[in-house]
């Protein structure tokens, strides 16, 4: 069967299990959804607009001169199109999401209900402070909770994502160094860190030097000490690290970094593994961002920016960015100007306004509904779930750092696939046919053919058992030499496997109508 430019069959009919073809190409509720450009027309619109009188141009030479390249659809057509697309997506509401290092946990519907309360959902950041006292109190509540949970004296609430929080923490470090007249130029980043860490340091003008991982997947304090020099500004260390392991020498590393006059930035993306068990401030951390979408169950974005608050040590508290919430006898206020910062030295602003209100509400609802003991149990259950998967698969799938306990995620490599003709990518694609989103693949880079699985605390034992049984079946099939099951996977997804290398190197970013297909033109009789 030939394929069109979008990788779909050029003939709509599909053979069903009964052996006959459907006229539409659909399989019951599995709809063969055409592209939106194929459904609509570029020369019509789905709505009627009154002709507008000519108005003075305010955009200068930026005014559009041609019609937008958008298809005209009726409202039912547009709704059906996007609903059908959503049904082709995998989501935490449809099944276990095993992505490692992303913490795709269930977002309780209670949180969503709270975020839609008019007093939170309908306010505007430019309202007078006196009219948003409840919102400021909630932000203050979350901020105080984060300080208690981390053992840190200050927190910046305005960063809108994990990487944005990294930038905030490192900018505070740079401001503190500048304040003492110390122009350091190097940031140390372990190989097991998140990829955004070196990018953040480089963005701020620092030269990044890598710290290798030792054989057990953790950072050797002696390797850090060997790199420490008068030009080192900070170390950016992830704990628990991206291999799913707790950095057991973190206190020794922090002490060495501080003795060298540098700062300790901790990537807090995996704080959900130690929540209520360990306070980063007690480990010597100077700055740490917290992904509310990971640890405190807010969605990844939620239809807008996420939230990545940054907790700061006493050495960095004075350099926190504006604005921040303060509480006084007359209620809550928002400090937005340096001259009202009470002796602090904020490095500036991260965003125009104060964070993302919807994410703060969801995080507050999760914190209050769980309480201190519930949040601690969430971390313990996440670690338990990951270790349950590790123990259940260790006889079939290979563990790069030995069969030792992990934290909230378990890391496998591709050694168990040696000689089978099956790759990590093949294994992951076969998971799609079984109804699972693949785990994180080929990351962290310190492990060849990495498969990083994070089940989270929100999965039941029944769902974990089915997931484990599925991976065991796939692993045994690979060892039995059933390469056909993997090479062509996925077979049952709406689209088959793409040429991902070609798609990355030669992306087609604009749809164009295929050339019309018709009868060949008649040849001249004189030919």
From TrEMBL:
Keywords: Oxidoreductase, Pyridoxal phosphate. GO terms for cellular component: cytosol; glycine cleavage complex. Residues 1-22, 503-527 are annotated as: Disordered. The keyword Oxidoreductase applies. It catalyses: N(6)-[(R)-lipoyl]-L-lysyl-[glycine-cleavage complex H protein] + glycine + H(+) = N(6)-[(R)-S(8)-aminomethyldihydrolipoyl]-L-lysyl-[glycine-cleavage complex H protein] + CO2. It is an enzyme of class 1 (oxidoreductase). Its EC number is 1.4.4.2. Residues 378-475 form the Glycine dehydrogenase C-terminal domain. Residues 181-301 form the Aminotransferase class V domain. InterPro entries: Aminotrans_V_dom (IPR000192), GDC-P_C (IPR049316), GDC_P (IPR020581), PyrdxlP-dep_Trfase (IPR015424), PyrdxlP-dep_Trfase_major (IPR015421), PyrdxlP-dep_Trfase_small (IPR015422). One of its GO terms (molecular function) is glycine dehydrogenase (decarboxylating) activity. GO terms for biological process: glycine decarboxylation via glycine cleavage system. The keyword Oxidoreductase applies. The glycine cleavage system catalyzes the degradation of glycine. The P protein binds the alpha-amino group of glycine through its pyridoxal phosphate cofactor; CO(2) is released and the remaining methylamine moiety is then transferred to the lipoamide cofactor of the H protein. PANTHER family: GLYCINE DEHYDROGENASE (DECARBOXYLATING), MITOCHONDRIAL, GLYCINE DEHYDROGENASE, DECARBOXYLATING. This is glycine dehydrogenase (aminomethyl-transferring). It comes from Tepidamorphus gemmatus.
